[in-house]
């Protein structure tokens, strides 16, 4: 079922026409009553009453359409179209009307506890920005489209979270923590796939909360700290080796000292201790020979 335009007319001209008809009917009834010796005839009273009822019934077709709103029209349960033209409108008085907001809306899901692709329990939540683009599908293809949006969004969030690890093992592996744009795009596509049948367009979806579950948070924090320490040590050792290589090369090139293999090994050992140590080193001055 797809949305189509429903029948409606501008409301202000219809109101003016109804007022003119009502005034003319009242004037005719008063004139007829004044011209009769014994008051208005029963036929005149009946015609006036019927026309007054019809005028009152016609006013039932007046309704308002607010900006960014659609009025879904139904005729005895059958979909008759949607009116999006804002302002005062008039349509068939037999139509029943159901307003649906077309404004952009958003909601934040609750904190869901799921397992990532590595099996680690995590807590995750997301913000979803959405709007209705097809009022017919929103009104008739799902029972309650607002509740449908929320439940299906949380289902898509669970599915997406199970496709990525919380933290990648290397820079090329997509993860929930490091590849935000890719993860958010995946989440939006997952939600849009589920909400397309409800006439809803997902404008944006992004993760608003991400953390390890409480029972493993401390252990994972220690693992992250250990990983950071290892990475820092790798950089320190790499820099220290480069500095030792540069020092030996400069000493040999300038002829400052001629080192044999044993002295070279001792110098390398001492420099690495100085450069890689966490604490300040205390030099020992040798007053004798190197041997």
Summarize the amount of helix as a percent range: 40-55%
Apparent shape: rod-shaped
Query: What's the assembly state of these chains?
Result: single chain
Mean pLDDT reading: 84
Please give the number of β-strands. Answer: 10
Number of domains: 3
Q: Please tell me the CATH architecture of the largest domain by its name.
A: 2-Layer Sandwich
Task: Look at the structure and give the CATH class of the largest domain.
Answer: Alpha Beta
Which residues form runs of ≥5 with pLDDT under 50?
Answer: none
Encode the helix/strand succession as letters.
EHHEEEEEEEEHHHEHH
Largest sheet: 4 strands, antiparallel
> Can you identify the CATH superfamily of the largest domain?
Band 7 domain
Number of helices: 7
Roughly what fraction of the amino acids lie in strands?
A: 15-25%
How far apart are the termini?
Answer: 95 Å
Q: For the CA atoms, what is the radius of gyration?
A: 40 Å
CATH topology of the largest domain: Tetrahydropterin Synthase, Chain A
Which class of secondary structure composition applies to the elements? alpha+beta
Describe this structure in words.
- With 291 residues, this protein is an alpha+beta fold.
- It folds into 3 domains: 9-93, no CATH class; 105-212, Band 7 domain (Tetrahydropterin Synthase, Chain A, 2-Layer Sandwich); 219-276, no CATH class.
- The protein contains 7 helices and 10 strands.
- It has helices at 11-35, 42-58, 135-140, 145-161, 180-195, 214-254, 261-276, and strands at 9-10, 62-65, 69-75, 78-83, 87-90, 96-101, 105-108, 112-115, 121-132, 200-212.
- The strands form 3 sheets. Strands 7, 8, 9 and 10 form a 4-stranded antiparallel β-sheet that branches. The protein has a 3-stranded antiparallel β-sheet with strand order 1-5-2, with helices on one face.
- A hairpin with a 5-residue loop joins strand 8 and strand 9.
- Helix 1 packs antiparallel against helix 2.
- The longest helix has 41 residues, at 214-254.
- The chain is rod-shaped, with a radius of gyration of 40 Å.
- 18% of the residues are buried.
């Amino acid at each position: 079922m797809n949305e189509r335009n429903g029948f409606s007319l501008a409301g202000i001209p219809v109101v003016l026409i109804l007022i003119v008809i009502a005034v003319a009917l009242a004037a005719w009834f008063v004139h007829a009553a004044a011209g009769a010796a014994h008051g208005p005839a029963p036929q005149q009273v009946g015609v006036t009453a019927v026309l007054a009822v019809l005028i009152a019934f016609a006013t039932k077709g007046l309704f308002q359409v607010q900006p960014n709103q659609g009025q879904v029209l139904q005729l005895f349960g059958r979909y008759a179209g949607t009116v999006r033209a804002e302002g005062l409108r008039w349509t068939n008085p037999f139509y029943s009307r159901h307003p649906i907001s077309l404004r952009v809306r958003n909601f934040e899901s609750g904190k869901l506890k799921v397992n990532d692709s590595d099996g680690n329990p995590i807590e995750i939540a997301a913000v979803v920005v959405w709007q209705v683009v097809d009022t017919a599908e929103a009104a008739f293809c799902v029972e309650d489209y607002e509740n449908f949006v929320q439940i299906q969004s949380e289902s898509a969030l669970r599915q997406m979270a199970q496709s990525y690890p919380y933290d990648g093992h290397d820079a090329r592996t997509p993860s929930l923590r490091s590849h935000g744009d890719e993860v958010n795009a995946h989440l939006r596509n997952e939600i849009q796939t589920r909400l397309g049948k409800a006439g809803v367009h997902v404008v944006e979806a992004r993760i608003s909360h991400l953390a390890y579950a409480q029972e493993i948070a401390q252990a994972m924090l220690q693992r992250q700290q250990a990983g950071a320490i290892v990475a820092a040590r790798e950089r320190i050792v790499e820099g220290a080796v480069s500095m030792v290589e540069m020092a030996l090369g400069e000493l040999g090139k300038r002829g400052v000292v001629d080192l044999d293999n044993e002295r070279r090994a001792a110098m390398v050992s001492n420099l690495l201790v100085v450069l890689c140590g966490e604490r300040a080193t205390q030099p020992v001055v040798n007053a004798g020979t190197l041997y």
